[in-house]
Amino acid sequence: MKVRIGLGLGTRTQVDALTFNTIVDRLEQHSADSIWLSERINGPAPDPLMALAVAAGRTTTLKLGTSVLVLPGRNPVILAKALATLAVLSGGRLLPAVGLGAVEPVEQRAFGVERTQRGRIFDEMITIMRACWSGASVDFDGDHFSVHDVSVSPVPPRLDVWLGGISPVELRRVGRHGDGWLPSFVTPDDAARGREAIESECATNGRQIDDDHYGVLIPYRAPGSTLPARFLETLARRRPDLDDPSILVPELDEGLPTLIEEFIAVGTTKFVILPIDEPHGDEAWTDHIDHLATQVFSLEREL
Prior knowledge:
Elements: E1 4-9, H1 17-29, E2 34-37, H2 48-58, E3 63-70, H3 76-89, E4 94-99, H4 105-111, H5 118-133, E5 138-141, E6 146-150, E7 162-163, H6 168-177, E8 180-181, H7 188-204, E9 215-220, H8 229-238, H9 255-265, E10 270-275, H10 282-295
Parallel strand pairs: 1-2, 1-10, 2-3, 3-4, 7-8, 9-10
Antiparallel strand pairs: 5-6
């Protein structure tokens, strides 16, 4: 197995063509593992699939991840076609992490799906999409989708689907449908317990997730900075079980490398790091990625 570390861009990312291309090019130059794009319809972040298509055309080794792409509210066959195309044209570098979507009402309205229906829709979509990627003719009748005699090409190479979440329901869904696990705002202890639950569900369903497909998304802050009060309030609501939820957002130079090593110790090998205070402009991003190369990307290694 190998420790692999990529960079994520958040839902508030604002980049023009020059800045985005600079980020992509610099990550490729430093042999970073991957770039991950977040999805938020009601926000400034670029559409993940469109932006990753741009990144694919500028690179040859950089992997391309969505963190996460929302499924409920999309057509599963059309999405399967788009993902298959990007996977093939990028030479198998696509890493789709998918989810149910944000809980904010305005974001849910954008996708037009009732919150209570998202889980059932998601499960049907995953089933249909996997069938489409097999290249065979697909027939499916569910509560939300009906597909008959549909086939999708090009047939993609192995296309691993990553899921997140740490609640019992989410962990069971990973065990039923996921090829990888990429949660956020978790501790190493959470990762260890979550993996046990996922592996138990996998065994129940006759499935297995590769050992190197257990990851984590870690937001980080600039050295010496403090978290905004609103961000701390959000963390506290999300993780009321933690006395100090700020530990989930370490400082870059000291806290982040230490936390990565703690995750590696419990079997986590795939990392997406995400700055909560993003640089502004192509020169600032260049300096930041150069710094990451020495402080964080250098932690990649064979285990």
